[in-house]
Amino acid sequence: MAQLKRAFTNDKENEGLKRVFINELKDYTNQKVLLRGWVHKITDLSHVVFIRLRDKSGIIQLVCEKNQIKDLRLENAIEVIGTVCTNEKAPGKIEIQVKKIEIVGNAYYDKLPFEINSLKNKAALETQLDHRTISLRRPEIRAIFKVQNEIESAFRNYLKERNFEQIHTAKIIDSSTEGGSEMFTVNYFDRRSFLAQSPQFYKQMMVGAGLERVFEIGHAYRAELHNTWRHLNEYVSLDVEVGFIKDEFELMDLEEGFINYLFNHLNKVCKKELEMYKIDLPNEVFIPRITLEEAHDILLYKYNKKSPIGNIDSEGEVLISKYVKEKYNCDFVFLTKYPVSKRPMYTMPDDKNKDLTKSFDLIYDGLEITTGGQRINDYQMLKDNIIKFGLNPDDFDFYLETFKYGMPPHGGFAIGLERLTMKILKLTNIREATLIPRDMKRLTP
Ligand code: AMO
């Protein structure tokens, strides 16, 4: 281990210096440091050359002499030894007086596919995605994934603080969870299997297994024939399932609590990234809850907008968000009580009206980011419902088994990570919030 550490820091070759990240430099004024990163910009003023060095934490100005930068090109990976100096005129008010620069990663390109160091000349999204690792070098693109990373941390921490436990469930599965034909098939030795559309069954089964409160952060696969700004064929699902609940409103409370926790967290740890995108997140959010029927009425009477039976379409999502923003000054709205006919077979019917379910969607700034609800927890009722949906209970033996052994009232929800990221940063295409997007046309990089 000691040997490994030494090799990693390369102390001997680097005058005994440990690598410092750019965002730590303010603690090293007037000291000699070792920096590593990429050449972001070169400004040659003939008597002196300014280089902007970029690492994962930021950008710093290097002051070099001409002979120190021989053969240096944009995006070379370099190691730099120099002294940290304060300079009122330098961006960030500190700069590095360079003693030595060494190229540790050569550049072999003729021309960069697009500019990395300028906010202007933004290449088309498809070009950026074609060259994903190059586009990610742009600080404003990296910022999206810093925010996404922090969403994930907040989700995990919020739930762990509430006695939830993280699970990882199988993605190669035997049968559909959400219904419909939108599944990818996979050859599984001599059988056909599918890629999971959602960890739905497994998260419920884990509640029944005695874990009671679980969450999963994992990929979900949808073979949907939608090539739109809000659909992916592989996305990250933030899934939650809770045992011993009273009703679906408890789940909405839990999700509302998460949104508040998240916004506070992002306001603390992603200040720079939010500023880059000019985003101002409120510290407190009260999310109105309206039934789907009320939403239909509002859309019809206020906007003359007819909705599909048992749902609202994407135009309806935008209009209902507009209404809630004007009336409650809130970017979110829970729509509740979806009809039985529009929800999967595991959804608990409403206590008062058996045509409705104890389910909900969360709409954020014109886009559905969550579906959730209470589930049927009675074995016989679930089995009957599977038959009512025209399915064969034998296909669901593995799922139904848990329900024979005292399944508590339970429910949960799932949030699409990329959709949430996209909406927080007001991006216009879900692919921008996806590190390696998979859509109907894209299977590389
Ligand atoms: P649903 O199918 O509504 O519900 O999915 C939940 C959330 O996942 C995201 N999402 C998608 N994101 C990008 N591209 C897609 N093609 C895509 N499809 C879904 C959305 C959506 O709101 N098992 C239930 C959840 C539950 O009840 O716990 C389910 O998967 O943000």
Q: Topology, pairings included?
A:
Blueprint: H1 2-9, E1 32-44, E2 49-55, E3 58-64, E4 77-86, E5 94-105, H2 125-130, H3 132-135, H4 139-160, E6 165-166, E7 172-173, E8 185-188, E9 191-195, H5 200-211, E10 213-221, E11 234-243, H6 248-269, H7 271-276, E12 289-291, H8 292-303, H9 314-328, E13 332-336, E14 359-364, E15 367-374, H10 379-388, H11 397-403, E16 410-416, H12 417-424
Parallel strand pairs: 3-5, 6-10, 12-13
Antiparallel strand pairs: 1-2, 1-4, 2-3, 4-5, 7-9, 8-9, 10-11, 11-16, 13-14, 14-15, 15-16
Helix pairs in contact: 4-6, 4-12, 8-9
Bound molecules: aspartyl-adenosine-5'-monophosphate (AMO).
What can you tell me about this protein's structure?
This protein is of the alpha+beta class and 445 residues long. It is 30% helix and 25% strand. The chain contains 12 helices and 16 strands. The strands form 3 sheets. Strands 6-10-11-16-15-14-13-12 form an 8-stranded mixed β-sheet. Strand 14 (359-364) and strand 15 form a beta hairpin. Helix 8 (292-303) packs across helix 9. The protein is elongated. It starts with a helix and ends in a 21-residue tail after the last helix. The model is unreliable at 1-8 (pLDDT under 50). Bound molecules: aspartyl-adenosine-5'-monophosphate. The site of aspartyl-adenosine-5'-monophosphate has 22 residues, from strand 11, strand 15, strand 16 and helix 12.
